[in-house]
Amino acid sequence: MTAQILDGKALAKQREQMLKQRVDLLEQKPVLATILVGDDPSSATYVQMKINACGRVGMGSRSVELPSTTTTEQLLATIDELNNDSQVCGILLQHPVPPQIDERACFDAIDITKDVDGVTTQGFGRMAMGEQAFGSATPAGIMTLLKHYDIQLSGKHAVVVGRSPILGKPMAAMLLNANCTVTICHSRTEDLADQIGRADIVVGAVGKPELIRADWIKDGAVVVDAGYHQGGLGDIEKDGLENRVAAVTPVPGGVGPMTINALISQTLESAELLA
């Protein structure tokens, strides 16, 4: 068996052409506002990648950079200003923010109609209940990737390793809505290898390099790695998988490009709904 490569980079490029055509039909160019608090170089790189993607599809972007000393109240005021700006269709608050800031309060202050990164509590609740809402960008991108490659989800056992509110939990909810039987594993899970060994679909969303060992994963599984670490490592050890599993996302080039694509796509959808 040779694993099918779930090529997020190629799919994102293909989808950008379609998104550009939709942008061209709008009278007013959609604008994504990005908020970066502090000077973390990795966060700055991620924000710039999202700005670049906006440019490729003809969307506008507004970069808001705040000092690392910013308070919760100051950040809330910035978000409120963007909520009330009719030109802004989407708001992205880059995670993480400095420790003195109440990140959850700031996420939840984003207008749900502009929550294109899917980070608000209200948006999560609506998505989990199967109602219209913008999904968290990484899980939404993964679902688009799986659909494009015709990966069967209904009736399958999916194991999501990680329970963060913007990745693991929404990923599990989306898979459940797609009729998977879902197990969520985390730092307190006992017999992690055994749990993963029963999975038809494994999603690595734990944020630790190669925590999930290749020999834990059964033959024929679908492997989705949402991690990225120095040296091109993911959350899942890949050695030996390519000849055993049904499908696998590369690192890099799998989930990452689809995260950005989902963000841009949802910003455009917001613009179309607000038009």
Structure in words:
It contains nine helices and nine strands. With 275 residues, the chain is α/β, with parallel strands linked by helices. The chain has two domains: 28-112, Rossmann fold (3-Layer(aba) Sandwich), CATH 3.40.50; 137-255, NAD(P)-binding Rossmann-like Domain (Rossmann fold), CATH 3.40.50.720. Helix 1 runs parallel beside helix 9, helix 2 packs across helix 9 and helix 6 packs parallel to helix 7 (168-177). Catalyzes the oxidation of 5,10-methylenetetrahydrofolate to 5,10-methenyltetrahydrofolate and then the hydrolysis of 5,10-methenyltetrahydrofolate to 10-formyltetrahydrofolate. It catalyses: (6R)-5,10-methenyltetrahydrofolate + H2O = (6R)-10-formyltetrahydrofolate + H(+); (6R)-5,10-methylene-5,6,7,8-tetrahydrofolate + NADP(+) = (6R)-5,10-methenyltetrahydrofolate + NADPH.
